[in-house]
Write a structure and sequence with these properties.
This protein has 90 residues and is an all-alpha fold. Helix 1 crosses helix 3. 53% of the residues lie in helices and 0% in strands.
């Protein structure tokens, strides 16, 4: 696998991981007992911490990419194994 492929796959996994971990730990003004400021949505988080989200996404992406790479090297699950429709008609 080329290094450009590794970087591209890791970047895609990282973005998906960021969207997965983003909602964990966020609190709304109702959760904190605060009032909603004018012009803000009721669901807007009051404790958004992007560094924490980036750290969590990086760790999760590293684990998922590690599993992907080990599978790529060992060939445990290949594209033929994912064919749920059976062999093509002849």
């Amino acid at each position: 696998m080329q290094i450009t492929s590794v970087i591209a796959i890791y970047a895609l996994i990282w973005v998906m991981s960021a969207f997965l971990v983003m909602p964990f730990g966020l609190r709304t003004p109702d959760d904190n007992g605060e009032g909603v400021l004018p012009g803000h949505a009721d669901s807007a988080p009051t404790n958004f911490q992007p560094r924490k989200i980036m750290l969590r996404a990086t760790i999760l992406a590293a684990v998922i990419f590690g599993l992907f790479y080990v599978n790529y090297v060992n060939g445990w699950v290949e594209t033929q194994d994912l064919n749920i429709f059976g062999p093509p008609p002849e």
